[in-house]
Amino acid sequence: MEAATTAEAFQKIISHTLRLTNRTQAIAAQLLTIAKHQHELLINGTVNGVSPSKLEKRTGIAYLAGVETYDEIPMWFREYVPRFIGVSIPLTQPNKFREDWAFKSSLYLSEGKYNKELKPLLTSMAKVFQDDATSMRALAANLTGAGLTAELRDFTDGTQLTSNRANFVMNLYEARLSRVKNKDFKKEQAYLNLQNILATSLQITQRRKNSIPLQPAHRPLIAGWEAPGYDNPTDYHYGYTWTAYNLFYWKREFNKLTIPGADDFTCYMNTVKPSEIVGQAIIRKIEKLALGTGVAKSCFTIPSSEPNVDLGW
After folding, report:
1. Euclidean distance between CA atoms 285 and 25, whole angstroms
2. What is the Cα–Cα distance from 165 to 171, expressed in whole angstroms?
3. Residues 30-45, buried b or exposed e (16+ Cβ, 10 A)?
4. I want to staple 298 with a disulfide (CB 3.0 to 4.6 A). Which of 24, 129, 206, 267 is the partner?
5. What are the residues facing 47 on neighbouring strands?
6. What is the tens place of the pLDDT at every residue in 97-133?
């Protein structure tokens, strides 16, 4: 397959993979447009044709990606432990201006810095990704009866969830700003938007969960992942795709905004046992100590059964 540019190659690969006809070629063109938008915003942090001079904390993917306890601890080290000490923990997610630290210190992220350096990116992602979702939905409607029903549903759901996530994050920072200003942030539009976005997004993820075409050959493997006592550094023991269909990372951010004290709790809603990641004997001993004494229990242990993501833990 020959192509003059990577964009042309991308479009040809889509056409070939989906076996597009003359009528359905518009799908490849639309996916190419979406890919370009996502590359500009998520990877390069480019807004209105202008890219940041420094990418750290200024790429869209850093804000749309969810984080958990063992993502936040390395972020803390990177921010507050002087590098000359030589103690660091590698980041597992792109670094960002954390919403739970935002607006509390002018040295970290003041309102002025937010308005200048971060808000334009969040606003642009929300608008561009919503336009992409609307265009994909219109395209799918125009192609009714042309086949590719399942694929078009994937594309419409995927673009809408991406749009919802961008809109959620934008409103999350606005709600944080209202809270720091001592406003009754739960009456502000940003907070109301967060509630609505969560509800509509859960409708999509729950529907997709119920329609996952799980192949018979995969069922024994997944049953093993979910089995009690299975050593597995994921959340599959709470159910297949548990974090996705529950919007775990979204709800963790929402809970930290709304539940008193959750902001100050480093290991809030932790689902990772360090020994499952590191596997060292000393870590296992610490976990046993934490379980028996309550010392840093939340950082070294996880719920034994599926926890309630709405209430937190």
Report:
1. 58
2. 10
3. bbebbeebbebbbeeb
4. 267
5. 50
6. 999 999 998 899 999 999 999 999 999 999 999 999 9
